[in-house]
Amino acid sequence: MGIVLAFAVGYFVGANAGQAGYQEVIEALHAVRESAEFEALIEAMRAHAAATLQELSVRVGQPGDEPLTPASVLERVRDLIGKARLTSPAS
After folding, report:
1. Each residue of 41-83: pLDDT tens digit?
2. Would you give the distance in Å from CA 56 to the centre of its chain?
3. Which SS3 state, helix, strand or coil, does residue 89 take?
4. What is the torsional sign of CA 15, 12, 42, 59?
5. Residue 70 DSSP SS3
6. What is the distance between the alpha carbons of residues 27 and 34, in angstroms, rounded to a whole number?
7. How far is Cα of residue 22 from the mean position of the Cα atoms in its chain?
């Protein structure tokens, strides 16, 4: 999504500022993508996604030796959502 947005902004600015303005935007985008801060952001997002998936696997896991299938995962998530609705206070 960010790449599409960056492309749209770059195209708009480039169209209004001519070829030189467009080239400046492209160079700025390349500088951002190659920066240590951007790399750290991507790494943090990957770590967060991994932790989230790990937590999800613990919550969705089934007792016993049954292998998880998409249908069983969906059923387990529905059960968890149903329990959460039953235990949460009414708003």
Report:
1. 999 999 999 888 888 777 776 566 667 777 877 887 888 788 7
2. 15
3. coil
4. negative
5. helix
6. 11
7. 28
Confidence of residue 2 (pLDDT cuts 50, 70, 90): low
Six-digit token string for 78: 């529905």
pLDDT tens per residue across span 28-43 = 889 989 999 999 999 9
d(CA 3, CA 45): 16
For the whole model, what pTM was predicted?
A: 0.47
- Element spanning 12, H or E: helix 2-33
Token readout for 42 is 């991507």
Locate the DSSP E strands across 1-91: none
Q: How many domains does the chain have?
A: 1
